[in-house]
Amino acid sequence: MSQPLRMTFGLFGGLLLLFTSLSLHAAGPIFTPAAPSVAASSFFLLDFDSSRILAEKDADKRVAPASLTKIMTAYVVFRELKAGHLTLDEKVTISQNAWETGGSKMFVEVNKQVRVEDLLQGMIIQSGNDASVALAEHVAGSEQTFATMMNEQASRLGMANSHFENATGLPSPNHYSSARDLALLAQAMIREFPEYYRWDSQKEFTYNGITQQNRNLLLWRDPSVDGLKTGFTDDAGYCMVASAKREDMRLISVVMGTASANARANESQSLLNYGFRFFETHRLYEGGKPLAETRIRKGVTSKLAVGLAEDLYVTAPRKHFNELKAETQIDKGVFAPLNKGDTVGSLNVTLAGDAIASKPLVALDSVAEGGLFRRLYDAAIGLLEKE
């Protein structure tokens, strides 16, 4: 059996350097305090770029998501916009059903035509249930069909503990999500639709002469916070998905089932402060750039550049980032033909012996099969190496 080739790297000033046997930095003791006590039925703290979980409690517990549902409603509408199936200026005729929807409202009127952009702001900023239903009906014909679209996206995103029955988050027996799932959804929302995410930081919106403020209290308390959504029902309690960016690090926090609007803001702030205080995130490698070179047999060329398919971000305890070690494991027997993107090994990142991240190493170019002479030559070399 062929054995992988190993190369070990360390970090110095943000640059990856080859090691022989010694580390450039002596590893100091690593102590990271436990997450603060959070008065919530469940919570989750996620680094946006690295996807590292920094804190959690009952993160997979299925709970009523209340108006946090509207993050998924917006996500589905944004996908329809991106696909060209509707436009922001498109007019939506408000149905009796949308107008009658209970709970928080944008205060649209029956049979009036409202732009998609206004309805989105009414839903995201004002948490209007009437706006949510109007958008769902316009996109899918009915709220029930729209819920099917929501569940399709939940499945695609890996939201294993979520099921949606409506576009609003109003109580329904089989309507639920989890702290982890909502963080995954927020991560996808921010990454895929930055052009629309700006509405999440908007503090107020005026429609039909009525101005309503965003219920995310952190928008007034913490300038690093720029989203996402709050929610409340008797079953759900006070819930919140928040995101904040300080320097180059973005975190996403989720708190479910807190006691009040002020409590959900305080608990979210506590989680975010903890993450920013005790952790740091940086990009280790740029995707598509050569990380190492290996021999390829029976190809039109004998050398193959390998790297990562996408950028690799790593989160580590603050002040210990330069103690990270990266080890590449490249398959010894790499043969043509080979397609760009094919896996040829792995990159493993550790800190003080603990695994931090692992990503496949891929071929950065396609290599066609070589001529008869090249194949025979490499076959002969292979036989000699086995002796």
Overview of this protein structure:
The chain has 387 residues and is an alpha+beta fold. It has 2 domains: 5-28 and 286-386, Peptidoglycan synthesis regulatory factor (PBP3), Domain 2, CATH 2.60.410.10; 42-281, 3-Layer(aba) Sandwich (Beta-lactamase), CATH 3.40.710. 28% of the residues lie in helices and 30% in strands. It has helices at 69-82, 96-100, 116-124, 129-140, 143-156, 179-192, 194-197, 218-221, 261-278, 372-386; strands at residues 5-12, 15-18, 42-47, 53-57, 91-93, 113-115, 204-207, 210-213, 225-233, 237-246, 249-258, 279-285, 290-295, 303-307, 312-317, 325-330, 343-351, 354-363. The strands form 5 sheets. A 7-stranded antiparallel β-sheet has the order 2-1-16-17-18-14-13, with no helix packed on it. It has a 5-stranded antiparallel β-sheet with strand order 4-3-11-10-9, sandwiched between helices. The protein has a two-stranded antiparallel sheet with strand order 5-6. A hairpin with a 2-residue loop joins strand 10 and strand 11. Helix 1 (69-82) packs parallel to helix 4 (129-140). It is globular and about 70 Å long. Residues 1-5 and 11-26 have low confidence and may be disordered. Its EC number is 3.4.16.4. Residues 1-26 form the signal peptide. The active site is at 67 (proton acceptor), 70 (proton acceptor), 127.
